[in-house]
Amino acid sequence: MATDDPGNRRPSPLSLSSSFRQGLMSDQISEEQEAESQSHVVAVSLVDSTPLLWRMQDLRAVRGQGLVGALVGSLARVPRQNGRMGRPLQLLQEEQRLLGEQGAIAMATRKQVSEERRSLVFESFDSYRSYEEQTVLALEDKKSSLLRAMTTPTPHTESKHVALRGHLETLDHHFTFPRSGLAVQLSTARAGLTYCPEDRVYLQADRSPRGPVSPQSEAKYQVFRDLRGRGFYLTSAGKFGGDFLVYPGDPLRFHSHFIAICLSLDESMCLLDVLTVARLGSNVKKTVLLCSATPEGGVVYTSLQWSGMV
Amino acid sequence: IDRCTPKKQPTNWIQQHPVYQGMKSLEVGDSAQIHAAFLVYMDLSEARHWNKVSYMKSPELEVVLLEGRELEGGPVQTVLPLPVHQNVNHRSLRRVLDRGFPLLLCAVGSDSTLVYQRMTDGLVTPDPPVGPFQDVDRRHQRKRRQQD
């Protein structure tokens, strides 16, 4: 019976032996960090039911506990690509639940915002530049554009210039800056990264109640918790037709060893599907892992590999 | 052409084979599975020249199981032959694994194609990719991208 334990990590083919040694050293450092991050409570923002992390210290803490998540934000400097993503970090449902069970997660509840408070919130948005300041600036902008229109040589008639000059002279009296034209700076970065209460209240989505846990998601969670407890890192495996990809260490340093497929012990699968998934696994040099939660609370694993018999 | 002589029926050698008849006597109740088991038996014993192949009934599963050694003195392995369109669940696979021997699952197609898969309890690390490894430089990456 062969078991895979994180002590027998194989480096990815692209790493050299020196970086492997460095990796071992950084393992020691990360253990200290892991102890620190155990006590850290991360702040989760919910968009519908999707859990997101915004703050750097939260991302670091969560990674220190062996939870990988997925970056889903676009980077301001390189927006039109998805090779490199930025914050926020989206957590798997299983990761969120695991953090919740450890008491390491805090979800700010949306309080009932009173009308008075709402107006206070909108008042605070004037912090960028007050209405008066913006009125003055807008008036100056309008004057300079009118001047520009008057002084540029165009084939317009003289009467147009006269009209423009007249307009300019009366501008000071007639100019009104509509409130809808007010420029407002909404600090989305601040809202996510700190507990700035006014901004968070405005940007937070309604927290939807978590529905009843289906037996499939319960089974998936049992497998996730068991494998995480054994020291493996797990990410979602949609690209490989499975439930989780199982890494012996941090995904930045290793290739995954297993494609985990979670099913119940009595769930019936067509043999053709077993062959499909085994073939896929052998093509990408990963072992397919059939995982089932037992009624006693443990998880049984069956490794599925190509036999080598042609 | 003599049309009066009735065409001689080809002998069904499978049904007359002693091993097949032995499997039938196990009274598993699934003739498709017995046929699959027989084909795997013949493949292991005659084509792959396994050292010893025997068949028995699995009490919990109502199927014919095969057991054998690939080489003389080698480890005993269990072989579970199943028609490819049959369903299987994890619990029955675990029961066969409980016998304590490494398990080979064999899927038998309707055209008698045989596909063997190894099933093991626990987490078996896959074999690492074979070297030598070369870092691809930018030119090759660009070329590969053009080919895609």
TrEMBL record, chain A:
It comes from the Eukaryota. The active site is at Y247, H255, K286. GO terms for molecular function: nucleic acid binding; tRNA-intron lyase activity. Keywords: Lyase, mRNA processing, Nucleus, tRNA processing. GO terms for biological process: mRNA processing; tRNA-type intron splice site recognition and cleavage. Residues 43-107 form the TSEN34 N-terminal domain. GO terms for cellular component: nucleolus; tRNA-intron endonuclease complex. Residues 1-20 are annotated as: Disordered. tRNA splicing endonuclease is a heterotetramer composed of TSEN2, TSEN15, TSEN34/LENG5 and TSEN54. tRNA splicing endonuclease complex also contains proteins of the pre-mRNA 3'-end processing machinery such as CLP1, CPSF1, CPSF4 and CSTF2. This is tRNA-splicing endonuclease subunit Sen34. It comes from Sphaeramia orbicularis. The lineage of its organism: Eukaryota, Metazoa, Chordata, Craniata, Vertebrata. The gene is tsen34.
From TrEMBL, chain B:
Residues 39-128 form the tRNA-splicing endonuclease subunit Sen15 domain. Keywords: tRNA processing. Residues 125-148 are annotated as: Disordered. InterPro entries: tRNA-endonuc_su_Sen15, tRNA_endonuc-like_dom_sf, tRNA_intron_Endo_cat-like_sf. GO terms for biological process: tRNA splicing, via endonucleolytic cleavage and ligation. GO terms for cellular component: nucleus. Residues 139-148 have a biased composition (Basic residues). It holds the Pfam family Sen15. One of its GO terms (molecular function) is nucleic acid binding. Signal peptide: none annotated. Belongs to the SEN15 family. This is tRNA-splicing endonuclease subunit Sen15-like. It comes from Sphaeramia orbicularis (orbiculate cardinalfish). The lineage of its organism: Eukaryota, Metazoa, Chordata, Craniata, Vertebrata. The gene is LOC115437601.
